[in-house]
Amino acid sequence: MYLARITVTLRPSILDPKGKAAGEALHQLGYADIRSVRIGKHIELRLDVSDESEAHALADEACRKLLANEVMEDFTIHLERI
Amino acid sequence: MARFSVLVFPGSNCDHDAYHAVRHVMGHEGRFVWHKDTDLGNPDVVIVPGGFSYGDYLRCGAIARFSPVMREVKAFADRGGLVIGICNGFQILLESHLLPGVMLHNAHLKFACKDVYLRTESTASPYTSALRKGQVLRIPIAHGEGNYHCDADTRKRLQDEDRILFRYCGADGSLDDAHNPNGSLDHIAGICNEGRNVLGMMPHPERAMEKTVGSTDGRFIFESMLRHAVAAAG
Question: What is the CATH architecture of B3-233?
Answer without folding.
Answer: 3-Layer(aba) Sandwich (3.40)
